[in-house]
Amino acid sequence: MKTYKLIAFSLLFGSYSNAQTLADAMKKTENERFDLAGSDFKALIAKEPTRADYYFYYGENFCEHEDLDSANLIWKKGTEVDPLNPLNYIGLGKYQWFKGDTTAANVYLTKATTMTKNKNPEVMRQIATIFIRTPKMKKLDAAITLLENAIKLDPKNPETYLLLGDALQEKTPENGSPAIKNYNIALELNPKSPKGIVRTGKLYQRAANYELANQKYKDAQALDPTYAPAYRENAELNMKFNQSTRAIENWKKYLALNNNTEARYRYGTSLFSGKKYCEAIVELTTVQGQGFNNFYVERMLTYSYYECAEGDVKANYTKGLETSNKFFTMAPAEKVIASDYKYKGLLLSKNGSDSLAIIELEKAITADPEKASELYGDVAKLYMKAKKYPEVITYLEKKRNGNFTNLSAIEINDLGKSYYFGSKDYVLADSCYTNLNRRSPSYAPGYLWKARSCYKQDNKNEKWLAKDGYEKYLELITPEEAAAPANKASLMEASKYLGDYYVNSKEGKDHAKAKIYWEKVRTLDPADKQAAAFFASPAGK
Hints:
single chain; mainly alpha
């Protein structure tokens, strides 16, 4: 998830001393210590500039580092210094395959297999790796065939069994037994390698078996405390299962082995994935300060600034909108996703631009209609704030989709008020509050608004439909709420209605109860004329 960087030849092939062995350099790549591995490869090439396999594995180091363009540059140079070595043609084929041009890729891959007459197991392994790890257009059956043929030629190479296990796991993810079998063979051939154990741990992780996956990663760490991927995988496992403290412990161990900008970027990404948004901000802004930036960083910072509830939240919203704007200037159009528009909309709202926020949220809905339901409520909330009731009804009815369980209690309340004030459809408003009261039976305002909706349907009090709602409202409102000035009018409204009911209804006439309610009115407002009229009447004496 990083921007590809094409590095100049002067940097790729400078003069270096203290060259290590090829095995040393390759191990550093495996340990994700890409910068150190790069230095080793440069030194090896400086010492033996015509040895083609150095170029191939140097290119692999860039490829693992997600810098495919620089890898391709290295592989091209490898074919120039030794046109008879097949490995760098495989590298050129990998570049084309990963870019999606399988026709161009096959030209290079065929050249490599023809040169070796299909008898070189390393060529088979490397081509199989392409077919397994390509982000698109995998060829798992072809990879399995290549690896089985490589085993016939070189039955003692553990790497072949690891790759075969990978291919089998990709082919039948529901059945990890064939993969584990091959990983175990690899471990029998090389008991001191932690890679097979980590592979097994990833199988258990994919199966959501936290305990076994965690144990495998611990086993790999014990076997080789310098194998950094074991700590990274363990950290990501812990993040996935909400074990943030353990995750951070493993990340710190990983960073102790591999504390460079790329490693800290991975750490920041993991924090983000684990919803540790405030911590992610710290790491991601740190790597930006070290010169590392791409649109993924801006995306994660945008989301994190919105979600982080610590510190100066208002300042976070301001920074979040700034990073969102940067993201949209950096990201290719095809990489923009619905949530990018969503968070820009939410941040615009937090910064006081509700009308612009609605535009962005509606873009998010258009970008991903399948996930639109989770955005309908956000749009409706902004329209509710602007008292645009018809629009609130439109979006909340889309979200409701015929079932009130699709709405939150607040959304049901907003929908009810929108029907009440907007379309003046008091029957539908009543339906909303009936459902709200089932959902939140101790929420007093729900009964108040149900009573009001009922009264609008029966404003001549022929059926006294509002009685139950007003009674429940007065029963549920707490003394603290009743003492609040904001609730005075609604308390008087309910008390007057019930006082009137016990005076004038045929079925409920009860002057003693009427006095109770009219006394509530007089207590709330001693100058109320209706209360004075009641107590002056025969019913009130």
